[in-house]
């Protein structure tokens, strides 16, 4: 591929995003296998061409509206605001919930930093809750005990933020009913779980706000983007207002508060819209990949997989496995390095936020299940476009690490 920057200049070669790596079969090279690369649905180029031809490229016009409406159908939410990223949607969520400096925000410790980063940047105090071993998501029993204690102290959190992990919903019905008792709103970080269900309802259902991401590694991508969803029309309208610089209705740019430049470009909305048609098939593909990993590895001693509770259906956005080093005869890191050496990306399960230096001093509520999952957990390549032959290389490489 090459790009001509100026009419008379020589074309500049654009390197492809994959490095190649040599694996120890003579004469064979494979492109590096990534954890969750984007998977094109086919209609993206046409949608992009139509968008550019229409002249609507800014975060306004028919494309973002169509994208938001389609996300509304996929998630079951009545009101959806498309924004520049999942992190931006979380930030707006904290703003519309009136998070103030010194307020506490409670979230699951087993998550990506973006769940809590905007709150901390707003001056909030983070508190981390342990996960349930049967779902790897926020443990409702820990939440119940911690909220009762917080109420007794007279210092409730401003918001509770459960996280749908690796495509698996948190136990939203339980979490919402516990929080309702104390009048604490719930914002679901469902960035990783578009297409998942909890008791037959789409991810995030029941929360005051749910946030999804359309980053390049998610199950459906816009090349970058996010949405804030709610049943509360006023909250979504407020988020939209803040996302476009908090301009009051007047020709001279009147401001009662300050906002952000968080709009979703029409160009990205077009890509996201073209991708959304494939959601169901992407969920099925990721679940099939998970099933093949189980079939290929579960007989090994010391190997297990992220459980799926009977109240939910995960998308298996990422397949996560656990390696017990004593039974398996090798550490998780040994396996990760062996995969890396043959050009296969894998990653430890999220490092719990209570162990991150930036949140030093923030306590963990609960027994520390998440810490054990981090020590033994490994996320495997799970892209919906992965070929069975590629997946067989992953399985063979892991099997070769077993010291029986
Ligand atoms: C990806 C992700 C985000 C952030 O989404 P972006 O669109 O990348 O900003 C937030 N939370 C979780 C749990 C995520 O996995």
Short overview:
This protein has 404 residues and is of the alpha+beta class. The protein has helices at 44-54, 62-75, 86-96, 117-121, 140-153, 172-182, 233-243, 266-276, 279-297, 325-328, 332-341, 369-376, 388-401, and strands at 2-3, 12-13, 20-22, 29-31, 79-83, 104-108, 125-129, 159-161, 187-189, 197-198, 201-202, 209-213, 226-230, 303-305, 312-313, 319-323, 347-348, 364-365, 377-380.
Polypeptide structure, described:
This protein has 404 residues and is α+β, with helices and mostly antiparallel strands. The protein has 2 domains: 44-276, Aspartate Aminotransferase, domain 2, CATH 3.40.640; 279-401, Alpha-Beta Complex (Aspartate Aminotransferase, domain 1), CATH 3.90.1150. Helices cover 35% and strands 16% of the residues. The strands form 6 sheets. Strands 5-13-12-9 form a 4-stranded mixed sheet, with helices on both faces. A 4-stranded parallel sheet has the order 8-6-7-18. Strand 6 (104-108), helix 4 and strand 7 form a beta-alpha-beta unit. The radius of gyration is 22 Å and the shape is globular. Pyridoxal-5'-phosphate binds next to helix 3.
